[in-house]
Amino acid sequence: MADTRYWSKEVVSEFIEIYKSYPCLWKIKSREYTNRNLKNAVYDKLVEFCTKLHPEANRDYVVKKIQSFRGSFRKELKKIEESKRSGASTDEIYTPTLWYFDLLQFTIDQEIPTQSICNMEDEGTENSNHSTEEEVEFQEKTEVNNTQCFITSAFNISCTSNKSNCLQACLK
Questions:
Q1: Measured between alpha carbons, how far is 94 from 24 in angstroms, rounded to an integer?
Q2: Contact in structure between 57 and 51 (CB atoms under 8 Å)
């Protein structure tokens, strides 16, 4: 029997297309993502596809394949993001070498963390104490080294200091 770790490009492409067609497996904010029955049925379809190539394939095999593809995609994505942060010019930004990187582009919004909202002000501006939450169950005020931190029940932190001192002071 041939080594099952190596799939042809056509097979990988087809597998990814099937995976893409079922957002219940990859789109975290989808209502279907929490539907176990639907996910089980879809995994069964992917297992059926994989048994054509690897007769002993089961759900674990499929999950590991997906994790492998997504992990490789994340590594390439991380390289791109790091090259952008390094200040490289547009010509020098890392170009993915993973041949199926473009096929997994539909998962990119699931891989990149959402931009956090900074409610801290830079030095030299007025200090103000405000929380990102409209409704706060409780709020604890801590002052360390002239840094006022407000920790809410949802663990949102608001500080009245420069950004670098905020987390250090709040976490003490």
A1: 31
A2: yes
Angle at 75 between CA 72 and CA 79, to 5 degrees: 145
Number of domains composing the chain: 2
Domain end among 81, 111, 141: 111
- For residues 25 and 81, membership in a common domain is answered with yes
Question: What would the two tokens of residue 43 be?
Answer: 């995994």
pTM for the model: 0.61
Residue 68 gets which letter from DSSP? Answer: H
Residue range 4-54, pLDDT digits in tens = 467 899 999 999 999 999 999 999 989 999 999 999 999 999 999 999 999
In a shared domain, residues 41 and 15 = yes
Query: 127 φ, ψ to 5°?
Result: -85, 135
Q: How far apart, in whole angstroms, are the C-alpha atoms of residue 38 and residue 45? A: 11
